[in-house]
Amino acid sequence: YKEEDFLEVIREVTQGRGVDVILDMVGGDYLPREIKSLAEDGRLVLIAFLRGSKGQVDLADLMRRRLTITGSTLRPRSPGFKGEIAQRLQERIWPLLDQKLIQPVIHQTFPLQHAALAHELMESSTHTGKIILTVGPS
C-alpha cells in the first residue's frame, strides 16, 4: 500500500478515529504513517525494526495528540518472565479475542501448500495486516 491508501484503510476501519495501539515490528520509514494512524492518546510500541532502527517523528504531532512511543524486546528476558507474559496473555487478551472485542487485521489467508505465495506477498510489502497459513481442510 502507498501511505495514503494505508491511512484511508485505517480511517475507514476505525470510522476516522485511528487506532489505540500499534505493535510495530517494522520501524524505520514506517514510523510516520503509524503515528498518523494513531488515535488521540494512542500508543506505538516498537518491538523490532525490520526496516531499520531510525525514523523521523513529528514531535509537535506527538505532543498535540498526546501520543506515546515506547519500545521493548523480550530477547534478553528470562524464560520465567516470558512465561508470565504468556500466562497473562492467555488470561486477559485471549478472552477479548474470543469475544471479538479486539481483532487483528487479516490481509489474506493461504492454505499451507501455498506458503510460497504467502511469502511472496509478505516480501512485496503490499499488504496491511496479517498473512495467515492454514493447516488442514479449509
Q: How many DSSP H or I helices?
A: 5
Q: Could you say what the CATH architecture of the largest domain is?
A: 3-Layer(aba) Sandwich
Helix content: 25-40%
Gross geometry: globular
Assembly state of the chains shown: single chain
**Which blocks of ≥5 consecutive residues have pLDDT under 50?**
none
Helix/strand structural class: alpha/beta
What gyration radius follows from the Cα positions, in whole Å?
17 Å
If you consult CATH, what is the topology of the largest domain?
Answer: Rossmann fold
Mean pLDDT: 90
CATH level-4 homologous superfamily of the largest domain: NAD(P)-binding Rossmann-like Domain
Largest β-sheet summary: 3 strands, parallel
Instruction: Provide the CATH top-level class of the largest domain.
Output: Alpha Beta
| Percent in strands | 15-25%
Question: N-to-C SSE series?
Answer: HEHEHEHEHE
Strand element count: 5
Euclidean distance between termini CA atoms: 28 Å
Count of domain modules: 3
Description of the structure:
The chain is 39% helix and 22% strand. The protein is of the alpha/beta class and 138 residues long. It folds into three domains: 1-72, 3-Layer(aba) Sandwich (Rossmann fold); 76-103; 105-138, no CATH class. The protein has a three-stranded parallel β-sheet with strand order 1-2-3. Strand 4, helix 5 and strand 5 (130-134) form a beta-alpha-beta unit. The longest helix has 20 residues, at 79-98. It is globular, with a radius of gyration of 17 Å. 9% of the residues are buried.
